[in-house]
Amino acid sequence: MSTAELLTVDGIDTFYGRSQVLFGMRLAIRAGEVITLMGRNGMGKTTTIRSIMGLTPPATGQIRFRGADIARQPAYRVAKAGIGLVPEGRQIFPNLSVRENLVATAANRQGLKSPWNYAKVVALFPRLAERAGNMGNQLSGGEQQMLAIGRALMTNPHLLILDEATEGLAPLIRQEIWACIEQLKAAGQSILIVDKNVEALTRLADRHYMIEKGRVVWEGSSADLAANPDVQHRYLGV
């Protein structure tokens, strides 16, 4: 793992209209690292992701990605810079087939020698090969999540962000998604995850950020989190 920071979020304040949601929010991800954002619903996890992606730009503070300031760049520029988003709710194209959903986003802007392509994505998710001709709205929730992850990978991102990675999925499908994320981590993919499955997150991730009311209130490794059950109880209610 590199010691260079891939993404740095430094002291951002983000608003919806006059309502402030993030208060000096900060986090950092190094190349090859998997980190999580944890916290109860409504504490600012998705707003942090929206701020990074340029969907709800912060009013103040810095967001640096691969050395460049992206804090107030439009979303398409953030995506082009190399951040792939798997959004909450999946948001796949309902009237495109599985194959079309995947190839629509395909790009290898960094000129990688072995980029993600259709064949590699369906090898990772064989169900998608079986459903290649089906429309997006004909898939189960689990298949849609696989497609959303595959679509993000087809952009060959430096950083993959998953917002609610396994929300609403059946237990067996969740296991498939976590297994996929483990493979991506083993391949060196940098990942930021939001999810409620603390056990899976502590098994997979290198570090964790706990947020409450738009602020980081705790950060540490998986070993640190396991050693502090009171932190989980206080900020997650588990």
Description:
The chain is an alpha/beta fold and 238 residues long. It has a domain at 1-81 and 198-238: Rossmann fold. Helix content is 35%, strand content 27%. Strands 6-7-8-3-9-10 form a six-stranded mixed sheet, with helices on both faces. A four-stranded antiparallel sheet has the order 2-1-4-5, with helices on one face. β7, α7 and β8 (190-194) form a beta-alpha-beta unit.
Give the CATH superfamily of the domain at 1-81 and 198-238.
Answer: P-loop containing nucleotide triphosphate hydrolases
- Give the SSE order as H and E letters: EEEHEEHEHHHHEHEHEEHH
What coarse outline follows from CA principal-axis ratios? globular
The end-to-end span amounts to 31 Å
Q: Order of strands across the biggest sheet?
A: 6-7-8-3-9-10
Instruction: Give the integer mean of the pLDDT values.
Output: 93
Strand content: 25-35%
Number of strands: 10
Write a brief caption for the model:
By secondary structure, the protein is an alpha/beta fold.
